[in-house]
Specification:
- Chain B: Belongs to the binding-protein-dependent transport system permease family. CysTW subfamily.
- Chain B: Keywords: Cell membrane, Membrane, Transmembrane, Transmembrane helix, Transport.
- The complex is a heterodimer.
- Chain A contains eight helices and 20 strands.
- Chain A is of the alpha+beta class.
- In chain A, the strands form four sheets. Chain A has a six-stranded mixed sheet, sandwiched between helices. In chain A, strands 13-12-11-14-20 form a five-stranded antiparallel sheet. Chain A has a five-stranded antiparallel sheet with strand order 15-19-16-17-18, with no helix packed on it.
- In chain A, helix 2 packs across helix 3 and helix 2 packs parallel to helix 4.
- The longest helix of chain A is centred in the middle third of the chain and has 18 residues.
- By secondary structure, chain B is mainly alpha-helical.
- Chain B has two domains: about 60 residues, no CATH class; about 160 residues, MetI-like (MetI-like fold, Orthogonal Bundle), CATH 1.10.3720.
- Chain B has a two-stranded antiparallel sheet with strand order 1-2.
- In chain B, helix 1 crosses helix 13, helix 3 crosses helix 10 and helix 12 crosses helix 13.
- Classes of the chains: A alpha+beta, B mainly alpha.
- At the A-B interface, strand 6 and helix 2 of A face helix 8, helix 9 and helix 13 of B.
């Protein structure tokens, strides 16, 4: 892969600098702002996910990196070279499209060879590299077929092979698994992760599916309404959500709105919880309690009690919904044994406070 | 119902083409291949060749003009796209004779083009443009250009825009994207447009008469003359049959080529074995 000769904006040493550096990128469609001052950097060999609900701007950001959208402000540096000065076909970045966008009039082999031919790679070398890649994705037997004669999973592999055959520094994947059914999707998640290790490439994947992002990515940027809400590891996002949006979007959570105090949070109807936060005393805040941090206990230890209104058996564990007086929503609690509680039981519960988090509540 | 309207005339033509002309016109039901034997007469072969030549020239010109036009229309914003398509179709809704007479006004020796050129001092003697094969070609081109643009437009407009992005992302320059993706995928539209222009262009009989002054005889004129002037219905039917067969052959070829584009060569082997 050759990086086109463009004067670097800032002289950088490779090892220290991130591979991709997005600096203050803004984008708007007419008067609608799609991206608001996005800044983030992605390290070499990282599996990075852009996660968010539809319309959050994640696809716009991906398309800006690929060169199909031009940001109104900001720079996107790859190895210190500003990509926004290059036309889309000269960017050393390949993309796997959501619809795969395979060329229907070309065989699998021709599809995969397309990028190499565009680059002027000699025929023999192109043939060899296409053969290798088809071997990796397990489609050697399908080389002469047209995309119309392949299954969904096979098409996805062709799209992936076509995108990685040029060995780009950076591979962009737009909802790579959304067109597959559930079972194939789980297999492909593992396969993508394995592939990323094998080819040693930086992957940036866009997805709206938090499970997908959590299971594959090293780090995740959660986007909402054109802004980065939080950038962290999957574990960090889950255990230390920075905003109310992240807390509700990632995994399931019991959210209790209240007011921050000097050493915790005061939730009306439940009492005060000693969960420290940086929030100024008296401001609107939300206590985030994961279902597994709600503990069923005997009356002596309980800080509150309620009536079981629902139980969901999930195999290894069960989720118990408990209606607590004064609370609008029932509190969800994960228990690891069946028959701990059943419908109509009165149970005592408490929160595992060291694992709970208090975040600002912008809506309150 | 459809069968009656489509097949009955064809069967009639097929039937008539094997009979003979009566002394005062009319048809004598005498089975023979005479009509087909007459087709090889150099006189008629010549007319057929001229027609095919004229058809090819008009088709190539229509493609050369129509493709960039269709491509430009597809790239317009939705609002301008509608306006452009209406503009392409507009001539179709005005009377065809009026439009052809308009060309006479433009092309004749004292016509507007000659007047303008003389007025500007570019030429001193009027150019002879009317009643030439070129005038016929221009008239046919003008008449059938929309039949080229519309199938091209619909083919180009239905292409997945992501394919262009995918090719660009893989490092293809805009010209390579056109050459390897946009154009190959529009080939069914190109072939449809070519058949739509070629067949009526070579069988039109009004334009050769009005703009060609009857000097350029196409197969359409010949057929018309056999039915209306020579009153030789059987020979006219034989000529019409040749034209119909040609059309069918072209349509079959076009279908096959289009199918091959998406299914690939592999598919053909399978179906030919079956």
């Amino acid at each position: 892969m050759t990086i086109p000769a463009v004067t670097p904006v800032t002289p950088v040493t490779r090892s220290a600098a991130p591979l991709l550096d997005i600096q203050g990128v803004n984008h708007s469609y007419g008067s609608v702002a799609a991206l608001k001052d996005i800044s983030l950097s992605i390290a070499d060999n990282e599996f990075f996910a852009l996660l968010g609900p539809s319309g959050c701007g994640k696809t716009t950001l991906l398309r800006s990196i690929a060169g199909f959208e031009t940001p109104t402000h900001g720079a996107i540096l790859l190895d210190g070279v500003d990509l926004t000065t290059l036309p889309a076909h000269k960017r050393p970045v390949n993309m796997m499209f959501q619809s795969y966008a395979l060329f229907p009039h070309m065989s699998v082999e021709k599809n995969v060879a397309y990028g190499l031919e565009s680059e002027g790679v000699p025929r023999a070398e192109s043939r060899r590299r296409v053969g290798e890649i088809l071997e990796i994705v397990g489609l050697t037997d399908m080389a002469q077929r047209r995309p119309a004669k392949l299954s969904g999973g096979q098409r996805q592999r062709v799209a992936l092979a076509r995108a990685i055959v040029k060995r780009p520094r950076l591979l962009l994947l737009d909802e790579p698994l959304s067109a597959l059914d559930r079972k194939v999707r789980a297999e492909m998640q593992l396969e993508l992760k394995r592939m990323q290790h094998e080819v040693g490439m930086t992957f940036v994947v866009v997805t709206h599916d938090q499970e997908e992002a959590m299971s594959m990515a090293d780090r995740i940027a959660v986007l909402n309404q054109g802004r980065v809400e939080q950038l962290d590891t999957p574990l960090g996002l889950y255990s230390r959500p920075a905003t109310r949006f992240v807390a509700s979007f990632i995994g399931s959570a019991n959210l209790f709105d209240g007011r921050a105090t000097t050493d915790g949070i005061d939730v009306p109807g439940l009492g005060t919880f000693a969960v420290p936060s940086e929030l100024p005393s008296g401001s609107s805040a939300t206590l985030v309690v994961r279902p597994e941090d709600v503990v069923l206990v005997g009356p002596s230890e309980a800080t509150m009690s309620g009536i079981v209104v629902d139980t969901f058996f999930l195999g290894g564990s069960s989720t118990v919904s408990i209606e607590v007086p004064g609370q609008e929503h029932p509190i969800n609690c994960t228990v690891h044994a069946a028959n701990v509680a059943s419908y109509g039981d009165r149970v005592g519960l408490k929160f595992d406070l060291p694992r709970c988090v208090v975040v600002a509540n912008p809506g309150g | 119902m459809l069968l009656v309207f489509v097949l009955a005339p064809l069967v009639l033509i097929l039937g008539y083409s094997f009979f003979q002309r009566g002394r005062f016109g009319g048809v004598v039901f005498n089975f023979s291949f005479d009509n087909f034997a007459r087709l090889i007469d150099p006189l008629y072969v010549n007319v057929i060749m001229t027609s095919v030549g004229m058809g090819l020239v008009v088709t190539i010109l229509a493609l050369a003009l129509g493709y960039p036009t269709a491509l430009a229309i597809v790239r317009l914003s939705p609002k301008w796209r509608t306006i452009a398509l209406v503009a392409v179709l507009l001539p179709f809704w005005t009377n065809f004779l009026v439009r052809t007479y308009a060309w006479i006004l433009l092309l004749n020796n004292a016509g507007w083009i000659n007047q303008a050129l003389q007025g500007m001092g570019v030429i001193h003697e009027p150019l002879t443009m009317l009643y030439t094969p070129q005038a016929v070609a221009i008239g046919l081109l003008y008449m059938y250009l929309p039949l080229m643009i519309l199938p091209l437009y619909s083919s180009l407009a239905s292409q997945d825009a992501q394919l262009v992005e995918a090719a660009t992302n893989l490092g293809a320059s805009p010209w390579r994207v056109f050459r390897t993706v946009t154009f190959p995928m529009s080939i069914p539209g190109v072939l449809t447009g070519c058949v739509f222009v070629f067949v009526p262009a070579m069988s039109n009989f009004v334009i050769p008469e009005l703009l060609g002054g009857g000097k350029t005889v196409l197969i359409g004129n010949l057929i018309r003359d056999q039915f209306l002037k020579a009153r030789d219905w059987p020979f006219g039917a034989a000529l019409a049959l040749v034209l119909t067969l040609l059309l069918i052959a072209l349509l079959v070829a076009q279908q096959r080529a289009s199918k091959r584009l998406t299914d690939g060569p592999e598919e053909r082997k399978v179906s030919s074995r079956a």
